[in-house]
Design a protein that fits this description.
The chain has 139 residues and is α+β, with helices and mostly antiparallel strands. It has a single domain, classed as HIT-like (HIT family, subunit A). It has three helices and five strands. It has a five-stranded antiparallel β-sheet with strand order 1-2-3-5-4. Strand 1 and strand 2 form a beta hairpin. Helix 2 packs across helix 3. The radius of gyration is 14 Å and the shape is globular.
């Protein structure tokens, strides 16, 4: 496994070098809207501490992270009146990881509607801001 890259896009977001639509933040974790959502309300949840993925994260950091994942999942389900929630987490490129900072995808789902591909098409900033506000109202 490679070393953690301090210049990955999530590290830059955490440092405030790249803007994000933050939904939630505490001393150890942050949650923000995915700019290429696979469904309405797609949120990314990550630790503030540098961790490449679940294979190298400190157990205490993972414990606080999963608490935030649950909090965001409950709020996103309510905010988007979803039928369910998909939670995904990938480890290393062969498993689908493309940003090498530990993160969970929290995606509200509706019965019969497939996930959109993670295509590289950026969502409109106003839509992301509105979706972030919907989730914040349920926290």
């Amino acid at each position: 496994m490679s070393a953690y890259d301090t210049n990955n896009i999530f590290a830059k977001i955490l440092r405030g070098e790249i803007p994000s639509h933050r939904v939630y933040e505490d001393e150890a974790t942050v949650a923000f809207m995915d700019v290429m959502p696979q469904a309405e309300g797609h949120v990314l949840v990550l630790p503030k501490a540098p961790s490449r993925n679940i294979l190298d994260v400190e157990p205490a950091i993972l414990a606080s992270l999963i608490v935030t994942v649950r909090k965001i999942a409950v709020a996103a389900k309510a905010a988007f009146d979803a039928d369910g929630i998909t939670i995904m987490q990938f480890n290393e490129a062969p498993a689908g990881q493309s940003v090498f900072h530990l993160h969970f995808h929290v995606i509200p789902r509706r019965e019969g509607i497939a996930l959109r591909p993670h295509s590289g098409k950026m969502e409109d900033r106003d839509i992301l801001a509105a979706n972030a506000e919907k989730i914040r109202r349920h926290l």
